[in-house]
């Protein structure tokens, strides 16, 4: 878990550096090697690592718009994921998805920029696992800002009524962009949403990866043993802005400070030391993680950019008339074009 967490933290530190290249002095979001939005998950690492350590490749994970720590812990190929974030041809989605739309069928991982969107597909994956008589499970991660979405609540209901092997994990970082949690819900403990669906709900109230590990173990074993769904809420902290470039004028300074002080990585390191792990060993893990990240980023930056002529392959839209290759008469469904990679 420590290795996954330090990998995720360092990965994002490196992405942050790469992201800022070419974007300043006036912040130009479309410039540089990583154009578009970038939502960093520094401060969320305990949830990804503490949950995914219990999962196998054949288990499904869906994640929201802040996905890197979860993708890394689920075992998504770091090189292909990085190439995707840099918009390269060899990326997980041929550079068309970017950082919010990673999709890796090898380890059954997907994420989306639409909040709570991962819940129905996770329930679908759980239903498929049950119908196939396997003991695979599905886990849907979402932010506390998404717990009033219909997709989430309907997913809880279907999962409960059909006893499906799915676990919902709410990452509560107290903020939904600039909106504090207490302005959108009177329910302080999001795991209580489970009560209305007669399923177990548990909140991990601290940045303690070991406590997440224990709560997730119970929920995932329950799902794997055929005993139905559970809901977990994990308190995490957003160490950064909502996205890169967010000046956070809405956020009290003390809240930013608090987020930085409650570091689940430091806490886990302290726990490990208390259990006899030497500093040398922790250094070694960190070095190995840094090497892996640096290698993935260097590899991704050398990858080719996609050929512009492939822009409308494998997407659910047609080219605008003036750019259509058939002279503007294209009325076909572009999603059926381009057989290569069509399974993605
Ligand atoms: C259905 C939908 N509505 C609105 C948005 C815009 N949006 C993007 S992130 C976000 C807040 C998400 O907050 P939370 O779920 O707590 O996740 P966090 O960013 O804190 O990790 C919103 C409203 C969206 N992506 N999808
Ligand atoms: Mg949030």
From TrEMBL:
Keywords: Oxidoreductase, Pyruvate, Thiamine pyrophosphate. GO terms for molecular function: pyruvate dehydrogenase (acetyl-transferring) activity. GO terms for biological process: pyruvate decarboxylation to acetyl-CoA. Residues 32-308 form the Dehydrogenase E1 component domain. Its cofactor is thiamine diphosphate. It comes from the Archaea. InterPro entries: DH_E1, PDH_E1_Alpha_Subunit, THDP-binding. This is Pyruvate dehydrogenase (Acetyl-transferring) E1 component subunit alpha. It comes from Haloferax profundi. The lineage of its organism: Archaea, Methanobacteriati, Methanobacteriota, Stenosarchaea group, Halobacteria.
């Amino acid at each position: 878990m420590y290795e996954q967490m330090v990998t995720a933290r360092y990965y994002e530190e490196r992405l942050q550096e790469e992201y800022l290249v070419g974007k300043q002095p006036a912040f130009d979001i479309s410039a540089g090697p990583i154009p578009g939005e970038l939502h960093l998950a520094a401060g969320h690492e305990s949830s990804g690592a503490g949950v995914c350590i219990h999962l196998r490749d054949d288990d499904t994970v869906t994640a929201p718009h802040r996905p890197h720590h979860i993708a890394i812990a689920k075992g998504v190929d770091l090189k292909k994921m990085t190439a995707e974030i840099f918009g390269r041809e060899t990326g997980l989605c041929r550079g068309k998805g970017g950082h919010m739309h990673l999709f890796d069928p090898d380890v059954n991982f997907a994420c989306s920029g639409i909040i709570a969107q991962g819940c129905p597909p996770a329930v679908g994956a759980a239903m498929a696992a049950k119908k196939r008589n396997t003991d695979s499970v599905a886990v849907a991660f979402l932010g506390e800002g998404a717990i009033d979405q219909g997709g989430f609540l309907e997913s809880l209901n279907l999962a409960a009524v059909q006893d499906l092997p799915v676990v919902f994990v709410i990452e509560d970082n107290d903020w939904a962009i600039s909106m504090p949690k207490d302005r959108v819900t009177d329910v302080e403990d999001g795991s209580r949403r489970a009560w209305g669906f007669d399923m177990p709900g548990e909140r991990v109230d601290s940045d303690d990866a070991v406590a997440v590990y224990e709560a997730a173990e119970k929920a995932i074993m329950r799902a794997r043993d055929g005993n139905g769904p559970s809901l977990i809420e994990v308190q995490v902290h957003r160490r950064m802005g909502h996205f890169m470039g967010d000046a956070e004028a809405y956020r009290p300074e003390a809240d930013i400070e608090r987020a930085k002080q409650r570091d689940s990585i430091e806490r886990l390191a302290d726990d490990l030391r208390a259990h006899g792990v030497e500093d040398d060993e922790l250094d070694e893990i960190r070095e190995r993680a840094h090497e892996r990240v640096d290698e993935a980023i260097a590899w991704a930056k050398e990858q080719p950019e996609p050929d512009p002529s492939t822009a409308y392959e494998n997407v659910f839209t047609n080219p605008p008339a003036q750019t259509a290759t058939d002279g503007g008469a294209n009325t076909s469904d572009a999603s059926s074009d381009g057989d290569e990679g069509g399974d993605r």
